[in-house]
Specification:
CATH topology of the largest domain: Rossmann fold
Number of helices: 16
Shape: globular
Structural class: alpha/beta
Strand order of the largest sheet: 9-8-7-10-17-23-22
CATH architecture of the largest domain: 3-Layer(aba) Sandwich
Strand content: 25-35%
Bound molecules: S-adenosylmethionine
Helix content: 25-40%
Radius of gyration: 24 Å
Distance between the termini: 50 Å
Number of domains: 2
């Protein structure tokens, strides 16, 4: 049996976590499980709301067989995944959690499944995530608070005026130099992806106009600030926030992971692509290297039997209705759901309550499926899993994010840059893949959305191959924050 504790620092600090290890091993020794084929993986899941039970079983599917976790010949072993944070809480019976996880693994019929097995990026949690941004007003009405309050610190760093000013002064310096060489284009483009409530655009434009007045070159007259988001609702909000900037601002509905069609006209023209807290909100797969073999993590969303019974009773539904109603909710949203089924959901508020109950209870089962070759795995439409090879080779046994959405978005963003332009992206970046060995980096739930830290070294690898340099820096204005700034520009 291998025991991997990826929360070494937390383990040292938490007497409860230390005390959990004995009962954990005791419960496994007492269970009917082949210890020679068992791995135990202990995380400290800092997200109070997440997709896992305190303990869960993940089968490691054998190569060359149809995955059937119930069949011993189809699995190379099993992994027991344990959340040490919850184990450390007073009142948690660790042995009972382990027994429940083992029993639950074989009791597949007791669950209400919401989807087939898929790679992480294909899970319905991303449809929940998109629905959250599309129908944000309904969600916020139900919770009585704005989404920004769900972020750590209660406010987005995108509103930080000092950071905006620093960026703008750098731009002025560059524009002055290009102007002196008569190389400054007439139109000065800045594009922001994933605009939220428009707070970032507002902070940036306020600082820009103020600094421009002092600088005296009238760059504001030539400025075009484009705001892109996939949620028309969010975009409307952001437009209202900066309405007084008139024609200098345009809002575009776009998919951040496929930019060439929507903003391809900007190719080679953008001086700044400004992104904050978006990459951690884009779909991702995870891969794992286990004893030298590479696996794709497949997931499957479900409700436990008890959660399904509770939600069905709360809304007067049959349990078998939960999955199709969720599918319908994700397709048409809470307003149309109540309009089309008034006997089940009397008003949009009821449909939103159903949405929130489903999201709260949603869990993901996981399994490891062998990848027959990295080149057979499509990370983005134009990138294969080969890009992962150096990172996987460097780490031995590891499980890491592929950050598929962030990679696709980043790859489509780089060609938009003016030769002296830059991408500035503030987000939850890992800056070394070795970090995966000592912490948990998602997925977690923020309110109604999904969060995963971003595999920074992978983005840097992609940029390097395309002739761009990437650096990561601490967010100076809040050094204790987990947020880092990625800056990318053409390599000298
Ligand atoms: C957490 S908010 C960040 C808002 C703001 N930039 C900030 O830092 O406060 C994420 C934003 O990204 C948008 N978004 C998420 N996924 C997207 C996608 N695939 N395409 C375009 N926009 C997306 C959401 O609608 C939302 O406005």
């Amino acid at each position: 049996m291998d025991i991997d504790i990826r929360a070494a620092h937390r383990l040292r600090e938490s007497a409860g976590a230390q005390a959990a290890i004995g009962p954990l091993v005791g419960a496994l020794c007492a269970a009917d499980v082949d210890l020679t084929r068992l791995r135990v993986s202990c995380d400290w899941i800092q997200y109070k709301n997440n997709f896992r039970e305190t303990a869960m079983v993940r089968p490691v599917i054998a190569a060359g067989v149809a995955p059937d976790p119930g069949d011993d010949a189809a699995v190379d072993g099993i992994e027991l995944a344990v959340d040490l944070r919850r184990c450390a809480q007073p009142g948690t019976e660790v042995a009972a959690e382990v027994d429940a996880a083992l029993a639950d693994f074989y009791a597949t019929d007791a669950k209400v499944w919401l989807e087939p097995w898929v790679p992480g990026s294909g899970s319905c949690v991303w449809r929940f995530n998109a629905l959250y941004w599309q129908a944000l007003a309904m969600w916020e009405k139900a919770t009585g608070r704005e989404y920004e309050h769900a972020l750590p610190g209660g406010e987005s760093d995108a509103r930080n005026a000092a950071a905006a000013r620093e960026l703008i002064l750098d731009l002025f310096k560059l524009w002055d130099e290009l102007g002196a060489r008569r190389a400054l284009p007439e139109e000065l483009y800045v594009i922001e992806l994933g605009v939220g409530n428009g707070g970032q655009a507002r902070t940036w434009l306020d600082a820009f106009t103020e600094l421009d007045r002092r600088h005296g070159r009238d760059y504001y007259r030539r400025l075009h600030y484009l705001m892109g988001d996939y949620s028309a609702h969010v975009l409307d909000r952001a437009r209202q926030e900066v309405a007084h900037y008139g024609d200098h601002v345009s809002g575009l509905v776009l998919e951040a992971t496929r930019l060439s069609g929507s903003v391809g006209f900007l190719a080679g023209k953008a001086f700044l692509v400004y992104i904050s807290n978006v990459y951690d909100n884009l779909p991702t797969d995870e891969v794992a290297s286990i004893k030298g073999r590479v696996y794709l993590v497949q997931v499957r969303a479900y409700l436990s039997a008890s959660a399904a019974a509770r939600i069905a009773a709360q809304f007067g539904l049959a349990e078998r209705e939960l999955a199709p109603l969720t599918e319908r909710l994700l397709r048409i949203g809470p307003e149309l759901l109540s309009e089309s089924l008034p006997d089940k959901f009397a008003d949009p508020g009821q449909a939103t309550a159903f949405w929130q109950a489903m999201w709260d209870a949603l869990r993901q089962a996981e399994r490891y499926v062998p990848l027959e070759g990295l080149d057979t795995y499509q990370v983005t439409p134009s990138l294969t899993g080969e890009i992962l090879r150096p990172l996987l080779a460097a780490e031995g046994d590891v499980r890491m994010h592929v950050s598929n959405g962030a990679l696709a978005s980043f790859a489509d963003t780089l060609p938009l840059l003016h030769p002296f332009g830059q991408v500035v992206c503030r987000d939850l970046f890992l800056t070394g893949t070795d970090q995966y060995g000592s912490g948990f980096y998602g997925p977690g739930k923020y309110d109604g959305s999904t969060v995963n830290w971003v595999n920074g070294p992978l983005l840097a690898l992609l940029a390097n191959r395309r002739g761009f340099g990437v650096r990561f820096s601490q967010f100076k204005e809040r050094p204790a924050a987990n947020i880092k700034t990625l800056t990318a520009q053409v390599r000298d």
